[in-house]
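seq as requested:
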Amino acid sequence: MAWSEFVAGIFKPIADVIEHIVPSGDARLQIQQKLLEAQFSTAEKVMEYEKQLLDGQIKIITAEATGASWLQRNWRPVTMLTFLALVVLDAFGVLPFRLAGEAWTLLQIGLGGYVAGRSIEKVAPAITSAIAAAKDKK
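struct tokens:
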């Protein structure tokens, strides 16, 4: 579930209650406005938290990529190439054994983390500038 759906899901029951309890008119509009402001504020805080997580992940990946040793800089690609080789060998029946279910789970986690890490490196500057632009509008 995306964070925006999560935040909206939190406020939807409150909005439904307001819709049924508060008579129509200015009072309802004011309450709905306050609710929307609270929802946007919560979404902004969630985005800020996500930004902090991304910044932390970027720092880790950058530290690894600029590390002193070859192994520190290249352990992720080497690991993924090893997994790729195992998958290809397993698919063609070359291995004397079949890969266990846990190996496939580990591969999915590793590939997901590797792809997510690379995506974060590419997307983080756009997220950072979008958050900065939103703060400048205030």
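The mean pLDDT is 78.
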